[in-house]
Write a structure and sequence with these properties.
mainly alpha, flat
Length: 163
């Protein structure tokens, strides 16, 4: 999915004119998380002061209960009910859950690597360029996945070389 470009000046103007979060999310077609990210970038760039964000709502309005709707296929979160997921396009009325994976048989040899990797993750080179970072996966699971793949590769017989 390609990233959209939103003008910092335009969103700052809307923000300062009094548009609330819901209005901003609707106007720019953003999720709450994306709007929060934009606020963070504006703060980091020095274009917006934390006091400006804090002044937008009085203390009694800073906490709200929101009803959220999740896509059963990709877990996309939206603040409004939808018939078709805006992320993966699944039509909710036609959605049928995938069957749960079969349990791993107990007769596998000890130490046999089992890796279940569900989802789409972006691999990014680490700062030192010697390894890959799996974006979107928490560091503990990332370490387990890397260890499992590493062990699986070590236990494979070497590939024959062709001269």
């Amino acid at each position: 999915m390609s990233k959209r470009t939103i003008s910092a000046g335009e969103i700052l103007s809307d923000l300062r004119s009094g548009l609330n979060d819901n209005d901003l999310m609707q106007k720019y077609r953003l999720s709450a998380r994306a709007l929060e990210s934009i606020f963070g970038k504006l703060l980091q760039a020095g274009l917006l002061a934390q006091s400006e964000l804090d002044a937008r709502l009085d203390v009694s309005q800073r906490t709200v209960a929101l009803e959220v709707f999740r896509c059963p296929s990709c877990d996309c979160v939206q603040l409004t009910k939808f018939d078709e997921c805006p992320r993966c396009g699944v039509v909710l009325a036609k959605y049928k859950p995938k069957p749960k994976p079969a349990p791993v048989p107990a007769d596998e040899p000890p130490g046999a690597p089992t890796v279940l990797f569900v989802g789409t993750y972006k691999l990014t080179p680490s700062a030192d360029g010697k390894s890959l970072v799996i974006d979107g996966l928490n560091p503990k699971l990332q370490r387990k996945l890397i260890d499992a793949v590493s062990n699986a590769l070590k236990s494979r017989p070497p590939e024959p070389s062709i001269l």
